[in-house]
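Example 3.2
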Amino acid sequence: MTHTKKFGALSMAAVLSLSLAVPAAAADYTVQKGDSLWKIAQEKLGSGLKWKEIYEANKESIRVPNRIYVGQVLHIPDNAAGTATPAPPAEPAVPSVEARTQTEKALALINTFATGDTDTAASLLAEGYIQHNLAYGTGEEAFIGSVEYLASAPVQTTVENIRVFEDGNYVFLQTVYNFAGAGEQVAFDIFRFDENGEIAEHWDVMETIADASTWQNSNGKF
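Structure, written as C-alpha cells:
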C-alpha cells in the first residue's frame, strides 16, 4: 500500500509540482588552470561541442573564444544548468592508453586536432615532448594549447589519415588535414616513442594541396 507523505498543508505531489514549475537556476563557473571552453562545456553541458553556448552567454567578457583566464567567472546558460544530459548510446570499449599499439597512439594523437580532446593528448605525450615544426611551440603544454585553440575555432578541423606504418619505435603517417577550415594540406608525420610507450618527438613536412589547374599550369601537362 502506497502512502503520501505530507509536508504541512502540501502533499508530496504538490511539492513536486511546484518544484517542476520553477525553472532551473543558472550557474556560474570560475575558470581554473588548464580550462578551455571545450573542456568546460564537456564537464558542465555533457559535450565539448556545446562550447558555443557558453561563449554566446558570455560575449561581453570573452572577446576571443580561446582566450579565457584563471579566475574569470563564466555564466552557464539556463537551459543547461540543472538539466540532466541524456546518456549517450553505448559505444564499444576504447582500449586503455597502455593497451594501445604505437600506431593506434599516433592516430589517436592527431585525431585530437578534430575532437579537441586535451585529456587524450596529455595521456599520449611524454613530459619532455619535442616538436620540430618551427610553426608550433615545443613541449606538451604547447601541443595541448594547439588542440584547445582548434577546438575553439568556428570551423571544425578535419583529419583524414591515408596510410600509416611502423618501424621500431617510430610511426610514420601520411594524412590530409584541414585546420579550422584553412584549406586541405597533405602531411608526412614522424613520431618517436620513448621506452615508456609515450610520444617523445615529432617531425613533419606539410604542403597545401593544389588544384588540378594550378598543377597543369606549373608543369605544362597532367
